[in-house]
Design goal:
Herpes Virus-1; four-stranded antiparallel β-sheet; alpha+beta; 3 domains; metal-binding; 8 strands; 54% helix; Alpha-Beta Plaits
């Protein structure tokens, strides 16, 4: 079974014709050159091998002249009617086209209006969304600020408490350290118009210590406590220890030696002037509690009574007792 090149149908070898040049098989009817059983000329070639070979037109092939209708001898009335009908058809088609065009224009306009409405609605939604987002952001920021402020205030209060506690401890330590630089001047007679700035250097000179103005930071008098005390604060502990050591060596120093009183009343008010450590420092060193206030008041009361008796003109025995008690 071979396949025809022209019609692509299978056939037997006897029914077809084989080209001597390209060996392709074709139905005899497809070429129509050799009847069935007729011998094949050796010079014959198929159409592919000899394309310029003239081909005869088959009688059954239609011709363009047969398709065109003859116009000669046609009726003019029929031809006019046909043209009028054709014009009417064209006018109707054009009217339909215009109507369709108008309908499409309306549809497109309505579609455009709908799109514009959708666009405006989307714009409003976008604006509302932006406003809502802004409001939410403001609220979140407000709550966050309040939270941070509350937290900061809480932290600040705790920090302030810690700072106050630390300052109290520092103040206490500084006071304790300041007491290490303090000396109390006891037994100094009180007079009107006295100046401690002159008395303290005079006292230091009498005990053999030279003081500079910058070495004495503070000089205070305890007015509410009797007997009164003059508290001197030095800038250096070395100066304070030197004054204390020299004062212990000069315990016989009196107010007369300082030249604070007139000679006529020096024997009456003569008292020993001592430089001693503050009570808080002494108590810390000895581990003992301060003396009761009643004892101090009783000592001061006895001293005042003795002074009055001496001033009243009593015997010299009172004066000797006063000096002995002092």
């Amino acid at each position: 079974m071979v396949k025809c090149v022209a019609c692509a149908k299978f056939m037997s070898g006897k029914d077809g014709v084989t080209c001597p040049k390209c060996s392709t098989s074709t139905h005899r009817e497809c070429f129509g050159v050799f009847p069935v059983g007729a011998p094949i000329n050796s010079k014959w070639r198929c159409g592919d091998c000899h394309p310029k070979m003239p081909k005869g037109r088959h009688p059954g092939t239609p011709i363009m002249q047969d398709i065109i209708l003859p116009t000669d001898g046609a009726d003019p009335e029929c031809e006019t009617v046909s043209l009028d009908a054709f014009v009417c058809i064209l006018v109707e088609m054009r009217a339909q086209f215009e109507s369709m065009k108008a309908d499409l224009l309306l549809e497109f306009q309505s579609f455009k209006g709908g799109l514009q409405e959708i666009q405006s609605t989307l714009g409003e939604l976008k604006t509302d969304q932006t406003t809502t987002k802004t409001d939410l952001t403001v609220q979140v920021c407000f709550h966050l600020e309040n939270y941070l402020v509350d937290k900061k205030n809480t932290v600040t209060v705790s920090e302030l408490e810690q700072t106050v506690l630390g300052l109290k401890l520092s103040l206490n330590d500084s006071e304790q350290e300041g007491l290490l630089h303090d000396l109390e001047l006891v037994g100094l007679p009180e007079q009107r118009g006295e100046n401690l700035s002159n008395i303290v250097p005079l006292l230091a000179t009498n005990i053999g210590v030279t003081l500079d103005e910058r070495e004495v930071l503070q000089k205070d008098t305890t007015l509410n406590v009797r007997p009164r005390k003059v508290v001197i604060r030095f800038s250096s502990r070395i100066t304070r220890d030197t004054c204390l050591r020299r004062a212990r060596e000069c315990r016989g120093l009196t107010s007369t030696d300082l030249g604070l009183w007139r000679a006529a009343r020096a024997t009456v008010y003569q008292r020993v002037v001592d430089l001693i450590e503050p009570a808080a420092v002494r108590q810390g060193k000895r581990g003992m509690s301060p003396p009761p206030m009643e004892i101090l008041l009783e000592q001061e009361r006895s001293y005042i009574l003795a002074q009055r008796r001496c001033l009243a003109g009593n015997s010299n025995l009172c004066r000797r007792r006063l000096n002995k008690n002092n």
